[in-house]
Amino acid sequence: MTAVLPITVRDLSFRPGGRIVLDRLDATITSAGITALIGPNGAGKSVTLRIIDGLLQPDDGTIRFGNRLPQDVRRALVFQRPGLLRASIARNVALALVPWKLSRQAIAERVDQALVAVGLAHRADEAARRLSGGEQQRLALARAWVTEPELLLLDEPTASLDPGATEEIERLIVRMARNGTKVVLVSHNLGQVARLAEDIIVISRGQAVEHGPARRILSAPRSAEAQAYIKGELPWIAFSETRTACSQP
Amino acid sequence: MDRLFRNAHRVLTTLGLLLLAVSPSSAQAQRAITVASTTSTEQSGLFKHLLPKFTGSTGIEVKVVALGTGQALDIGRRGDADVVFVHDKEAEEKFVADGFGVKRHEVMYNDFVVVGPKSDPAGVAGKDIQAGLRRIAAVKAPFVSRGDRSGTHAAELRFWRDAGLNLEAIKGDWYKEIGQGMGPALNTASAASAYLLSDRGTWLVFKNRGDLAILVEGDERMFNQYGVMLVNPARHPHVKAADGQRFVDWLVSGEGQKTIAEYRVNGEQLFFPNAGAAERL
Amino acid sequence: MMQATVAETFAKLWTLDKEVLAIAWLSLRVSISAVVLGSAIGIPAGAMVAITTFPGRNGVTAVLNAFMGLPAVVVGLVVYLLLSRSGPIGTLGLLFTPTAMIFAQTILVTPLIAALTRQMIEDADRELGEQLRSMRLSVGQRARTLVVDARFSLVVAVLAAFGRAVSEVGAVLVVGGNIDGHTRTMTTAISLETQKGDLPLALSLGFVLMALVIVVNALASLLRSYAMRTYG
What we know:
The complex is a heterotrimer. By secondary structure, chain A is of the alpha/beta class. Chain A has helices at 45-53, 89-94, 104-118, 133-146, 163-178, 190-196, 214-219, 224-233; strands at 7-14, 22-29, 34-38, 60-65, 75-78, 151-155, 182-186, 197-204, 207-213. In chain A, the strands form 2 sheets. Chain A has a 6-stranded mixed β-sheet, sandwiched between helices. A 3-stranded antiparallel β-sheet of chain A has the order 2-1-4, with helices on one face. In chain A, helix 3 (104-118) crosses helix 4 (133-146) and helix 4 (133-146) runs parallel beside helix 5 (163-178). Chain A is globular, with a radius of gyration of 18 Å. The termini of chain A are close together. Chain C is mostly helical. Chain C has 10 helices and no strands. Chain C is globular and about 65 Å long. Chain B binds chain C through residues 2, 5-6, 8-9, 12-13, 15-16, 19-20, 23, 25-26, 34, 39, 42-43, 47-48, 63-66, 77-80, 180-184, 186-187, 202, 205-209, 236, 238, and chain C through 29, 32-33, 36-37, 39-40, 43-44, 84-87, 90-91, 93, 95-99, 102, 144, 148, 151, 177-180, 182, 192, 194-199.
C-alpha cells in the first residue's frame, strides 16, 4: 500500500472542448487511510478520480505515485453503477481479468475468492443484470478485488443504494483498505465520509481548496468554499465535533 | 451456448469454408463446356432432350447459359463461353468476321408465328407476315415487342422493314416494347389481348395463353435459322476448344440432327435440322 | 384455372420433387455461405468502426449505411465484369459457378451486416465502454466483449441479412447464369418458370422460399425473447 504513497498531483488541468474543468489542481495524499474527495457538483471530483485512475488523460500536469510512474500502479475504478454483461455474475467478475491472460483455471480460482469475499459465491451462475442495486455494487467490488489493486478509486459507490446496502458496501471498502489497498473515495454522502475517511480534499471549481484530517474539515472547515458546501449539505451543522471515522490502520 | 458465441468467429469461418468445399458442382473431375444460347431455345425444352444424348455419347457435360442472342454473343466475345448457339445469321457472321468465332455452322430452323386475340380485330389471319403487319399498323392494334436485342427482336424489326413500314415513324402507344424475353412478352400479350411475334417453340410450351391463338404461320420468310460457332481459341486461349468442337460437330452430325428432329412438343416437331444445307449450295 | 395451379403446386411440394429440393438446397448453400463470410468480415469491421476514432470515421459510417441498400443487380453486374474472362480476375474461371454467386452475395450482405453491427456496438459501447476501458481492456478485447454481449441483436441482424440474400435474384442471375442443374436457385428458377408460364413450379418454389423466410424471422423473435428471459 505504501508503495503508492505519496500520491502527488501537480498542476493538473483538464479543458475538454475549451471548457475549464480542472484548473491547475494540486494535492498531495500521504495518509494510508481512506481519502475522500468532496465538493459541489461540477467541481471536478469525478474527473480528478478518473485522471488518477488513468481513464482520462489531463491536458497539463502530472501525477506520481511515490516515485513510480502511473502505468506501473495497479488501480481499480468503481462507478456508481457497474456496466454489466448479459452473462453470469462469475463471468462479469472474470471480465476484469481479461487483460491478464491467465489460464481458465487461474481465473476461476480468483473469481471464486473474490465472490466469497463479497458474499456472492453461492450465486455465481445467476444472471448479473437481475441483481439488486446493492448486489450489483458488491459485484463491482468483486471485480476490483479480483485484480488485487494497490489503489482503489470509488466514484459515489453508494449513491443509488438504500441504507442497508450502503452499510454492506462500506464494510467491504473498509475491509479492502485494511488489507493494504489505498482507497480514494468521491462522495456526496457526508455521513459516509465522516464514517470512513481519514482525510478529506475539498474540490471546488477545478481546484483543491482545502485538504486536511476528516474530523477537522467537517467540524471546522477553513476555506469559504468548504464552509459553504458542508453547510449546504448539512444545514443543521454548527461546525462542532462529528462522529469520527473508525478506519485507523 | 455462451462458449459457442465466444468462439463464434472461428466457428463461422470454418462453417463458411466447409460449405464452399462441400459443393456438388465443385466436382471438377467432370469434363464440361459452357454454351451460350438463347432463352427461347432453352424454354422450348430442346436442351433437356438433346444434351443427355450428347453427354451419354461423349462424357462431356454441357452447361447452358441462356440469355438473349445479343447477350449470348457478348458472352462469346468476352470468352465466358466455349460455344455460341443462337439464331441471328447477320450477327453470327459478324461474330466470325470479327474473329471471335471460328466458323459458323447451320444446325436447324424453327419458325416464327404471329399470335393474337382469337377474335383477330385487325384481320391478319393468313400466311403473309408482311400483309399482317401492315394491317396491324393501319388499325394501330396493340402489339407487344420484345425490344431486347434478341434474335426474335431482330427478326421482328426486319419484318417491319421489309413490309415497307418505318417503325420509328409509326410507333405509338399501341406498340409496347417491354425489353424482356419471349415468356414475359407472351404473358404481356395474353394480358393485354395484343398481337405478338413469337417463336413456335416457346409458344408451344407456354401455358398462360388467355385468348391468344396462332394467326399467321407458314410464311417462308418467318423461318428462324439457328447457327452454332466455336469461340475462337486464338482470341481466348482458355476456351475448351477440343470439347467445344466436339459439341459443334455432334450437332451437325447424323446423330445430332436425328435427335433434334425427334424432339416433340404436344406431338409436334419443333425444330427442323438443316445442317450442311448452306454448305451444299 | 387458379385452382388447378394451386392443386398442382401442393402436389409438387408434397412429393418433394427432386428438382425442387436441389434448387432449394443450392439457394440455402449460397446464401448461408455468403452470410457466414459476410459476418466473419462485417462483424469485426463494424465493431472496430464503432469503438475507435479515426479521421474520416463519419464518412465510413455514411458509406456503410448507404451500401446497406446496394441494388442486387448492380452488385451482380460489377462482379460479372470482374469475373468475366475479359475481366481482371477472369483467369480464375469462376463465372457461372456457385462460387461466383457466393462471392456476389457476400459483397451484397457484408455492408449490411457491418452497418448494423456498427450501430449495435456503438449503442453497447455507450453503455459499457467506460467500464471496459477502466478495466484496461485493449481495443480488440473491448470489441470482442461488446460483440459477445450484443450477440442476440447481432444474430437477428445476421438473420436479416440472410433473408435479404436468399430473396434476391439480381446478383445470382447475372453471375450464375441460371444454368439448369448448376446455378439455378429458388429465385432464378421462379423468374424462369414464371417467364415460361409454368406457374405451379414457380409457385411451389415461391412457397418454399416464403416458408424459409418465415422460419428465419420466427427464429429471430425466439432468440430475442430467450435473451430477455435469461439475462434480463
